[in-house]
Structures are given as structure tokens and as C-alpha cells.
Amino acid sequence: MSLTGSFCQIFFKDKTVDEDGYVIGVRKNALQIFIPKFGLEGTLYVQQTEDGAKTSPFTYDDEEPSQNAGDVKFRAFDYVKVQISMKATSIQHQKLRLQLVQPEVPGFSVPAVEETPGQDDKQDEPPAKKARSKSKY
Known about the structure:
The chain is mostly beta strands. Helices cover 7% and strands 42% of the residues. The strands form 3 sheets. The chain has a 5-stranded antiparallel sheet with strand order 3-2-1-9-10. A 3-stranded antiparallel sheet has the order 6-7-8, with no helix packed on it. Strands 4-5 form a two-stranded antiparallel ribbon. It is elongated. The termini are far apart.
């Protein structure tokens, strides 16, 4: 396992966060997403498995590599907002899960994570150090 993979498992273990990202690749069944805040690349699968059958509101256009769902079209370098969490089928098989928040695709997108009032990006930072008092000696 890479150091980045270990970091992700520790950092996102009990968290679900919404972050800005950009599409860096379009495939038949997925979008490759880059999340600049964490320097991570992840896969957003556009096919969902229900009762063993794969369903998707998306259609793949191979002439212009894009995924289309109604009025929403994803191409390389498009902005997205994704929800990041850890998917754990077992303790040994944990991986990063990306889910689409924006743009909204009915029946596919997930609602944004509720933030508590006054919550900001400093919640993950260590507490500030206390100032040293000068000694008279």
C-alpha cells in the first residue's frame, strides 16, 4: 500500500467531506476526478449496481469522450463537487469512495454534507502552541 493510500485511510476513516474537483479523464463506466485540496485522484463510477444489474442515467459518447445524463455533460477539465468517504467491505479492503454532489443528476447525485454553524477548515488543524514566557534567569 502506498503512503498516500495509508494517509487516505487514516484521514477519511470516520469522515465524509464535500470537496471541489475536476474531471481529468472520461471512461465508459467512470470519471477520473482530481481533488486539488488533497492532491488526490479518484474514480467516480457512473454505473450503480442494484440487485446484480448495472444501471446508469449516463450515456457514454466516444466521439467526444464525455458522459451525458439529461442536460448534464461531463468532459475533461469540468468542475464537479464530490463527496469523499471510505468504503470498507472489510478491514483489509478499504478504498476511497467518491460520490457526485454537483452538478446534480436526479437519481444519482447525493445531498451535500450538513455543516454545523461556525465550522470551518481549521477543524483539522492542530491547536496553536502557547507562547513561551520569558524567564528572568
